Amino acid sequence: MEGMYFTEEHQLFRESLKEFLKKEVVPNIDKWEESGTIDRSIWKKFGDMGYFGLASPEAYGGLDLDLFYTIIFLEELQKINSGGFAAAMWAHAYLAMTHVTKEGDDAIKQNYLTPSIAGEKIGCLCVTEPFGGSDVAGMRTTAVKKGDAYVINGSKTFITNGVYCDYMVVAAKTSPELGNKGISIFMVDKDTLGVSASKLNKLGWRASDTAEIAFDNVTIPASNLMGEEDKGFSYIMQHFALERLIMGVNAHARAEYALDYARQYMSERTTFGKTIDKYQALRHKYADLYADMEICREYNYSVAYRLNKGEYVVKEATISKLKSTKMADEVIYDCLQFLGGYGYMEDYPMARLLRDSRLGPIGGGTSEILREIIAKMVIDKKEYKPATN
Questions:
Q1: Can you give the pLDDT at residue 375?
Q2: Which of the residues 125, 223, 225, 383 has the least number of beta carbons within 10 Å of its own beta carbon?
Q3: In sequence order, which residues have a C-beta less than 8 Å from that of residue 341 and are 6 or more positions away?
Q4: What's phi and psi for 272, nearest 5 deg?
Q5: Phi, psi at residue 216, to the nearest 5°?
Q6: What tens digit of pLDDT does each residue of 162-199 get?
């Protein structure tokens, strides 16, 4: 499997990334989890190492590498046991920056993409709303054209990096009468008059900031429109394939981390004169969990391979997120059980893992919504096509 998808260069990158995370990130994780803030300096260190530019064009400072470098980036971030820190990094690089790369004009890319790759600016993507949830088409935020400007009013919620970001990629309705056909995408500086953000108190992902954001007569230049007016819904849907695959990959990686930890613990924990990895009930449960993780991991790699070739894998990525996040929750739940009472203690990693993993079936489209999307595609034969090449 490694030879099918990963080259020697990939493996060298993985080892280098592991060392970087071990040195620069792991010693700070508990502090960031407790404070709910990530030191600004770490963003610049990630930028200096090129980690934010793995999939970005070289013209703006990126490396334009194949998707499996991103897969490695995501997997290793999950294995430092802070879903919040990982989310802050990948939401910047693969939510906000993806829209800037795909829909931003040259001026926007120079002003936002280049410093984002360098770790000098932090971005967030603002789509979800308090009354809409997974119903993107039901958004109420509006952007009204007035001369050479747009005026934005509305609110967003559950926005990763929303408090401490420098800029926001915002979805708003420019033609409300057109429903989901009337959504556009805008670049908004965080310090623009009328923008306010309040931090939400979450069950997990404690290191990341997650915000509810209000836009009160926020006036931006018309040049901050990204892509074509009223094409925003198509852009969002197109990029959901990458986002859902990312969350699927995150899920198999954190499940793998949980299994690795549980196996080590079981080999050391002794009861009734033998280590608990010798008990058939536990061994067979572990075998089932490992098999479920392996199936999801292999499937996710195959979807990444197809996406890397330019295929539009919206169905496959939706399946990836649906099944992998469910698997991760189940694996981590049972791995916590392997630890007995210690699994319930904050001094051991499973408690945080359990909390962080629970967001998987919710964020980026709930599992219920994903099932309906899959049903439309395989039962109703609905076809989704990319908005841009």
A1: 97
A2: 383
A3: none
A4: 50, 35
A5: -115, 95
A6: 999 999 999 999 999 998 899 999 999 999 999 999 99
Q: Position 291: which residue type? A: A
Paired tokens of 245: 């695959």
- Measured in residues, the chain has a length of 389
Confidence (pLDDT) at 134: 65
179: amino acid identity, one letter = G
pLDDT in the model for residue 49: 98
> Catalytic residue numbers?
243
Supply 27's token pair: 């010693």
Strands 167-173 and 123-126: parallel
DSSP letter string, 343-376: GGSTTSHHHHHHHHHTTTTTTTS-HHHHHHHHHH
In single-letter form, the type of residue at position 201 comes to N
Check the CA dihedral 333-337-342-348 and report its sign. negative
Handedness of CA 155, 160, 163, 167 (dihedral sign): negative
Distance CA 379, CA 314 (A): 15
For the question of whether the overall pTM of this predicted structure is more than 0.90, the answer is yes
CB count, 10 Å around CB of 48?
Answer: 11
At 143, give phi and psi (nearest 5°).
Answer: -130, 110
Name residues of the chain where pLDDT drops below 50.
Answer: none
From 197, 131, 128, select the one nearest 161 (Cα to Cα): 197
Is 366 exposed, middle or buried (CB count within 10 Å of its CB: 0-12, 13-18, 19+)?
Answer: middle
d(CA 366, CA 200): 19
Contact 162, 213 (CB under 8 A): yes
Nearest to 128 by CA among 110, 119, 140: 140
